[in-house]
Amino acid sequence: MGYLGNAVKRLEDPRILRGGTCYSEDIALPGKLYAAFVRSTEAHAEIRSIDCDEARAMPGVVGVWTAADIDGLPMLATSGGYLPAPGMEQPVLAVGKVRHVGEAVAVVLAESRYAAADAASAVLVDYEPLPAVTDPLAALDGGAPLLFDDWGSNLIIDTAEEPLPDDFFAEADFVLDVNLVNQRVASCSLEPRSITVGPHPQTGELTLWSSSQHPQKLRSDVCVLLGIDESELRVIAPDVGGGFGAKALLYPEDPLLVWLARHTGRPVTWTETRTENMLTTVHGRDQQHRLQVGARNDGTIVAVAGEVVQNAGAYLNLTPVLINMTTQMAPSCYAIPNVAVTAKAVVTNTCPTGAFRGAGRPEAIFSIEQAMDLVARRLSLDPVEVRRRNLIAGEFPYETATGMTYDSGDYTTALDRLLEALDYEGLRKEQARRLEDGERPLGIGISTYVEITGALGFGEDGSVEILADGSVEVVTGTSPHGQGHQTAWAQLVAEQLGVELDRITVLHGDTATAPSGGGTAGSRSLQFGGSAVHLAAVEMAGKLRDVAAHLLEANPDDIELVEGTARVRGTPTRSFTLAELRTATLDPARRPDGFGDDDALRTHNFFEQDGWTFPSGAHGVVVEVDTDTGRVHLLRVVAVDDCGTVLNPMLVEGQVHGGLTQGLAQALWEGMVYGDDGQPLTANFADYLLPSACEVLPFETISVETPSPLNPLGAKGIGESGTVGSTPAAASAVLDALAPFGVTQINMPMSPEKVWAALRAATPARP
Hints:
By secondary structure, the protein is α+β, with helices and mostly antiparallel strands.
């Protein structure tokens, strides 16, 4: 049995389950100081003064710093310099003004975590409160408070260029207005952000340990801000307890803690509290869509136009990426000939928004899926039939009206597989029976989707080396935070070299061993990092065959690599171990011609992909609604996903499970809420509702494989697909259950309170 395509158990898990992990918080350095931040209690205010005298005098306090004390430390040109104009950069510590609750105003260093926290609470900040604005539409009004006075507006990006042509909807029999809110959510990774800076115990070099998804870019960004050479800073991402996109970014704490460690000459550490995490780690989603959807009377959608309004929060982060993804993916997997969706980005007195699992694609898919349901309802057609009539069904690659080139897919087959697994016709009969008998209404929600993966650019590095004992060392530029890279990369190498999985070590997340790399985000790991490792392993297999053929006086094509040896096919007694082959390459008398001293058994590949990949699928959710309480009960969740060639079904299923949980949570439970005064109302898990195992039922997952032609593995991403497809399916299921009662729209999350209120407000219609 080969390793590829089989459900190999994760090699990482025994160590993790036995407590053998090492997170940034666990790094033990002599003389380590603890940082605590003084954070703004105001959403929008001028800073009159900051009194640090009492805090500086407290026992165990080493120092307290404000923006005035770190003069010269540049502001953050966040996320690669996406700035509409100078003066809108995010300061490392607030300068003159605060723009959201939780913004750092000062930092304390002390000998213990408790002394630092006590001193932070003793810092007195005198604020002059200013009016705040949290809703992006309200922020666009002429009289709204301005976050950046010099800019003169809260509108920071507007992609609209020219009005629609008069005949844009000429082919439509009717046009529907679709106004939807994709609410703000928090990433809520199990491990909050954590940073430790100090001399490495083995080498003494200044090292930043961070729970980062992209240590190579973190090193580059911090070094640019501090004006130091990259050789002066090593960055290590140790074990990382979840990221979901939020940990792929640069934050003010990153350069500041490195600066403090250099300034004090002592190690420094900080791990955010859960409340800090909810207030300062970037939030996701928070888009409002105002669309017009033109359709024919047979259900064919011929034109979609409108506007996406992105709440960027107080500072611009990944906003340009988010809105581009949303507008580009507006048509989803449907053959819509005319699409013109523009975007605006608006600053408000809230935490900045950034990447969260899906980053712009779930928002687009949610809107077009809701539009499909509205068209079906307008025409009294089954929502599945409307989708089927609009699905792209033809040759790939396929170019959409927004200029996207889909690499491969089979959208109709995915939908058919879903309907079969659900017994869709049987569910519709059961739904009718329940209505007739007066039982709890049943709701069936269907979504079909396509999304972008590998869109963040960067190539990827991978190397393979045979060590002295015959084991194999793999170095990758990607760094996992739960995806199972140790297992997947070992499978790729074992398939080529014929070694056991436990003889393969995968190194990652350390700029000393992997100085370059694109990190892990945007579901890029396997198609980029995996392809690089695969190609390096293929090259290594060729080298091993050449050396073995020379020693065995055979043709390289006759050499097979099995069980850690190279042998002549059909003659297993004539063989060399990989350790013996490595030794032979070091001996000029034994190695083949052309093998010099620099041709040790180490191979490297840098893989770049010509284009993006587009995973797709169809999700189905079945719910029942308690009309007395408004509570939604999940009955079934079925996900059919196409991520190209499947390397390890177990890893794919795990990624789908995680994505489904987060997608369903957005539809039914989660929402980051601010008051009109900018005060967060959901700053901890007592108020921010996360699903537990009691709410999430067993999922049913099905794979459809249409390999991508863009990489040697045929791989597409899978990490975000569950999130993209499940949210619209769950929302559709709830509205489907409530349609007979006259309920047509409920903003997410569809909580019991909202469902109950919608039922009471609607005009009851006879089923």
